[in-house]
C-alpha cells in the first residue's frame, strides 16, 4: 500500500470510529477568578514582591512555605530566583523583598506592620509605555526580542 492510500485508510478508520463511538465534543472549562493575593503591608518589599514575584508565582507560593522559615531561607530563595533562574529584578531590591517575605510569611511574622490598603498602578488607557512600566512588563519582555518571555512584537502576531 502506498503512502497516500495508507493515509486515506487511516483517516477513514478514524472517521468511522468517531461515528460509531458517538464522536467527540468540545468541553468548555471556565476557571474561577484568581483570589489569592500577597498579604498587604506597609513594608517597602510588598510592592516589589507584587511587581516581581507574581510574574512567575501565584501568591500561594509564599504562603505555602514553612512559617518557621528564617531570614536566611528567604534570602536564599530570592537569590535563587535571580540566579540561576534569571528573574528580572534589581539586586538592590532583594533586601526589601526578603524583609517583607520573612516578616509576612516567615519566622519574623510578629514584627510585620499593619496591612496597607491595596493599590494598583493605573496609567492612561492610551499610554502603553507607562502601563507596561507600571506593571513591570519589561522585566521579562522587550519590544523586538525575547528576554524571559517573548518580545511584544512576537506576542502581537498571535
Features:
single chain, 158 residues, mainly alpha, 42% helix, elongated
Explain what you see.
It is a single chain. Helix 2 packs across helix 5 and helix 4 packs across helix 5. The relative contact order is 0.12. By secondary structure, the protein is mainly alpha-helical. The protein is elongated. The protein is built from seven helices and no strands.
Nutshell version of this structure?
The chain has 7 helices and no strands. The protein is mostly helical and 158 residues long.
**How widely separated are the two ends?**
40 Å
**What structural class is derived from the secondary structure elements?**
mainly alpha
| Share of helix, binned | 40-55%
Report the β-strand fraction as a percent range: under 5%
**Largest sheet, described in full?**
none
pLDDT < 50 runs, ≥5 residues? none
Task: Tell me the number of strands.
Answer: 0
- C-alpha Rg, in Å? 24 Å
Average pLDDT value?
77
